[in-house]
């Protein structure tokens, strides 16, 4: 739902200069199979999109923005038609939740959109429904088919860690999808690049022309290391300086215009497995009486003789749980060897699995330590890197497949644009 959460609703309650009654003739601008898109529909969306752009957005771009509004409406019509044909529905609660999130984000009272019942509020609701339907289509028809093998992730990590330093890039991106007319697509990409070189705002250009999931955020993608970026973007930023905008680069999916917003060196990631041990600890607190402490020490030695296995140690700890003198006794679970408490670290490191330590004496207590098991575990930062790589690669491939599905829908549909 990221796409519609960013919409400002400044126009919702204001008089609509482009409402239906103020348009001289409500023409049909596009036919999509059995549905039509009118001048009113397009102008409402245009108004909505204008509210997201800087006040100094050039009038010379209005025509392109109106075409973008119409193109988005065509796509949303195809979403609804595909969903209807395949029995895909959005629950009313999901729609209500989406509208409530938008209202909350924009400081509006709950129910404002529905209560307004204006052409714009209905247009907003239609977009919410279409976006939710597309999201559900992607989740049910595309995402389950995208799998990333573990060895692919491992190869990417090995490649990334082979160098001395890991670089991360903060990137903004404008993507123009390949069309049937390759020359027109290239010409558009070159026009957008020329606009940017002439000082047109990158975010505005992205919102008007970009066709990926980052368009509504003005093309801003965030921070990535090179293995998380598509090859065409990674190849571009590798030779760029901060602030540079690269000329359009072609991939099988379309044209890419990249701005390098910032770069940094990431901390090295540990790759060697970390050994962890499962520990149980019986702790007896000393008193101020030496005689009592001597008896306590003998008692701990007797306890030690009673422990032959993990079950014995658990039973022993459980037997003293209500005795305040043994309050520190517990199954400590899995602990990395490097994180062991200093008062037992040396003794634990000498023990084998299934062994109980001798009675360990410190300033205030006696301890028995039992090693129940050991294991090797990947460092947490490496696990996090694997998860992030998998998530981003999956997201990229899902988006690519979703664009292909939409492209197929457009090719199979009867679409008559009348502007």
List the helices and strands and how they pair.
Layout: H1 2-5, E1 28-32, E2 35-38, H2 39-50, H3 62-85, H4 92-105, H5 112-116, H6 119-142, H7 150-161, E3 166-177, H8 182-197, H9 202-209, E4 220-225, H10 231-237, E5 249-250, E6 254-266, E7 274-285, H11 290-305, H12 310-319, E8 330-336, H13 342-350, E9 360-361, E10 365-377, H14 380-412, E11 415-417
Antiparallel strand pairs: 1-2, 1-11, 3-4, 3-6, 5-6, 7-8, 7-10, 9-10
Helix pairs in contact: 2-3, 2-6, 3-6, 4-6
Observed structural traits:
419 residues; alpha+beta; four-stranded antiparallel β-sheet; disordered N terminus
How do the strands line up in the largest sheet? Answer: 4-3-6-5
Which structural class is indicated by helix and strand composition?
A: alpha+beta
Give the biggest beta sheet.
4 strands, antiparallel
Per DSSP E runs of 2 or more residues, the count of β-strands stands at 11
State the order of secondary-structure elements, H for helix, E for strand.
HEEHHHHHHEHHEHEEEHHEHEEHE
Shape: elongated
Integer-rounded radius of gyration: 32 Å
Name the helicity range. 40-55%
Strand content: 15-25%
Chain oligomer state: single chain
Number of helices: 14
The overall average pLDDT, rounded, is 87
Calculate the terminal CA-CA distance, rounded to whole Å: 30 Å
Contiguous uncertain segments of 5+ residues: 1-11, 13-22
